[in-house]
Automatic annotation (TrEMBL):
SUPFAM superfamilies: RING/U-box. This is U-box domain-containing protein. Residues 168-197 are annotated as: Disordered. It comes from the Eukaryota. Gene3D superfamilies: Zinc/RING finger domain, C3HC4 (zinc finger) (3.30.40.10). It comes from Polarella glacialis (Dinoflagellate). Residues 11-87 form the U-box domain. SMART domains: Ubox. CDD domains: RING-Ubox_WDSUB1-like. InterPro entries: Ubox_domain (IPR003613), WD-SAM-U-box (IPR052085), Znf_RING/FYVE/PHD (IPR013083). Residues 168-190 have a biased composition (Low complexity). GO terms for biological process: protein ubiquitination. GO terms for molecular function: ubiquitin-protein transferase activity.
Length: 244
């Protein structure tokens, strides 16, 4: 009993522990470098080396990756654990924690893979939307150009309509049937007299028989028409002035 108490105070022999994990080995195997490792630990080492098989202890290339089970060491470790049940519980707890960490890592990896897949799907959908968006932008630019051209044509049409309206107003202002008439020779001196003053650029007409005396027409007279009873002056701007 005293020996068992002393044994519990001592750490496990180093030969019972894997040099990679530093834990008691459950399935010890010998590698080509002469070292003994836990099988799962040395296999993981080879897997991560990606073809460059080197010794974990010496970092020298290994001629082979074949592993030889060490049954004698395995039995010695089992007998040792029978005397150290607390190490068995501790080892079980460690294995449980490692398994939990492994499962958690797998879940994280799965979530990351799913996220990457969702990201790839979103990128593909975005790539599909880029082409219709480019066509929509082209159609919008063409619509803006067509609207600008239509506005220019509308302005030109409004200007043409304005010019035609002005010309029509001038044409309607000129009497169509009236013709310049000369007073009869016998009545010219007694009925009216007309004088065009070129220097003053105006026309002055008088009728002694009518009240109002003399009327003066401003510059810009295009033509003067007269009848037996009245006068009409058509200006260059299309307006008509009558008197008599």
């Amino acid at each position: 009993m005293e020996d068992d108490g002393i044994l519990r105070l001592l750490p496990p022999p180093k030969s019972f522990c894997c040099p990679i994990t530093q834990h008691l080995m459950q399935d010890p195997v010998a590698a080509a470098d002469g070292q003994v490792y836990e099988r799962t630990a040395i296999e993981e080492w080879f897997r991560r080396s990606r073809g460059s098989h080197r010794s974990p202890m010496t970092n020298l290339p290994l001629p082979t990756v074949l592993l030889a089970p060490n049954r004698a060491l395995q039995r010695a470790i089992e007998e040792y654990l029978q005397c150290r049940p607390e190490l068995v519980r501790k080892e079980l707890d460690r294995v449980s924690v490692e398994e939990a960490v492994r499962l958690w890592s797998q879940e994280l990896l799965s979530a990351k893979t799913a996220k990457n897949q969702d990201l790839l799907t979103a990128r593909a959908a975005l790539a599909e939307l880029r082409q219709p968006l480019a066509k929509l932008r082209e159609a919008l630019a063409a619509g803006e150009q067509a609207a600008a051209e239509f506005e220019q044509k509308l302005c030109a049409a409004e200007a043409a309509v304005g010019a035609e309206t002005t010309a029509a107003a001038r044409g309607s202002a000129a009497p169509s049937a009236a013709q310049p008439s000369a007073s009869p020779p016998g009545n010219s001196s007694s009925r009216k007299s007309r004088r065009i003053d070129d220097n003053a650029n105006c026309v002055t007409a008088t009728r002694p028989a009518l009240a109002g005396g003399t009327q003066q027409v401003s510059a810009g007279v295009w033509q003067v028409f007269s009848t037996d009873f009245a006068f009409a002056a058509v200006k260059e701007n299309g307006s008509v002035v009558t008197w008599g």
